[in-house]
Design brief:
There is one protein chain. This protein is α/β, with parallel strands linked by helices and about 550 residues long. It is about 35% helix and about 15% strand. Helix 2 links the parallel strand 1 and strand 2. The longest helix has 18 residues. It is globular, with a radius of gyration of 24 Å. The protein starts with 7 loop residues before the first helix and ends with a helix. The chain binds thiamine diphosphate (TPP) and magnesium ion (MG). The site of magnesium ion has 8 residues, from helix 16.
Amino acid sequence: MKPSTPTVGSFLFDYLHSLGVTHVFGIPGDFALPTFRWLQASKLKTITMTHEPGVGFAADGYARITGLGVACVTYCVGGLNMLNSVACAYAEKSPLLVITGGPSPTDRTKDVLMHHKVRTFDTQRRIFEEVTCATAVLLDPETAAAEIMRVVDAVREFSRPGYIEIPFDVVDMPITNIPPIVKRPVPKSDPDNLTAMLEDAVAAISKAKQPVIIADIELHRHGLVEQALALASKFNIPIASTLLSKSIISETHPLFIGVYSGPLSDAAVQKYVESSDCLIMLGAFITDVWFGFMSTSEKLGRNHTMLATTEKMQIGGRTYERVVLKEFLERLAQASVTPRKLGTLPQPAPEPKPLADNEKSGALSIENFFRILGLYVGENSIITCDTGDALFGAMKLRTKKATNFLADAYYLSMGFSVPAAIGAMAARPKERVFAIVGDGAFQMTGVELSTAVKFGMKPIVFVLNNDGYGTQRFILDGPFNEILRWNYTKVTELLGAGVGKKVTTNGELEVALKEAIASDKMYLIEVILPRTDASPSLKRVGEELGRIRDKDKRNGAA
Ligand SMILES: Cc1ncc(C[n+]2csc(CCOP(=O)(O)OP(=O)(O)O)c2C)c(N)n1
Ligand SMILES: [Mg+2]
């Protein structure tokens, strides 16, 4: 029954519902149980998971698709267990709200030792301060509504995680003071700086012979993909994405030239981007992954680059203060620049070739895995990829229009893909979700398939079994890269649902994949790969990181 006067708990979940949130991912504990009772009574669905790292990744996956994800956990043992996932969301700008239970305000006034407390009552919040853009501890019901709105607002504006701690007793308290929802003022650029930047941008684009746009992840996080596409289409400028932003621009768009990641990219894409005389980096996170872990950033010399992000605006060596990205993109698309004739563009990963009969009995390789997957992953599907060759190999996968591709391609934490798939399935129940995960990463969070079964979700999961930490073997090998060989296909038996298949040849994978797509069941397909197999991209990553991390290779030894 809904109380006539809202409580802190009912207000919180009603407010999140009014913003379009449908699911909350979590694991309760005594400090959070009263909050879970309000969650259960709300219009939101509770997805109780098996382990907090999975809670964070699932809520992050949901957030990347919908624009706001929510994770609800208990004090310290739950929150701190989820810290790495929240750090990932911070690093990759995912709008994730963390709600945690906490001790009561009265207990906090005494310096008692209480279970779950680490050092001080404020320890968990202080740790989270480092991985969030706003934090609040709701000690006073009178200010709780305003505090909730402040944190949620910041999460949506900055597209970074936020933290709300609710003492177990405060969550039940009535609130009478609900401030009106005030629309945030639309940020405005400094008019002179905007004009100067637009003039410089038009001049740079007009005189360039080979401009290229790199459409990076901020465009997606801040809802600016359409504006970037309008700009590209108006001036006829080819567009590349990055591994992190893969698929935010349809990979079948005529101006799309492929994924750029330095030497990990297709050679033609790398050459085209690096020989551009006007590189327009929109919403870019310039990280070492951008350059395939190499320090080749100087190849993209400052003089012919344009950087336009929510945090920094720069053309050549000149910086423009207080210029808003959205305004810049919209105004630039209205500027008068003669659209250029397109020369020959690199072809993004071509349509994969169907398997010839004589290839069917061939042993699988990571390259053929992605080729066969590319043949069957249709529109309206979601792909989640884990760190390892599941990600590096995906560089060549050409996703179809409206395919969502989710990977923590910058922070690179293992264990993302299976729980993120759960978040994706909650966000888009009608779409088919494919999770691609290495055997090592599966051993970290694969148990969340239990959550999928519990909630009737039917992912298709590929466990890429190369018998251990393949990526690391290419950097620096040793017995520390070995893992126990699991009988992965037995997981479905353990969970009492779904179908487990082990495939070793191209043909077997094709048959299993077709069967999985046609069926309405969860599938776990164990893909057996040779230990020495790796995608060309992973081999380059291994070479580069090996050179940096392995002193023998650093010193030139074989
Ligand atoms: C949480 C976490 N722990 C450790 C690492 C370091 N690491 C990067 S790749 C990798 C091995 C991944 O093995 P697997 O999932 O089997 O994929 P593969 O490299 O074999 O394709 C490890 C341990 C990491 N990135 N994230
Ligand atoms: Mg492996």
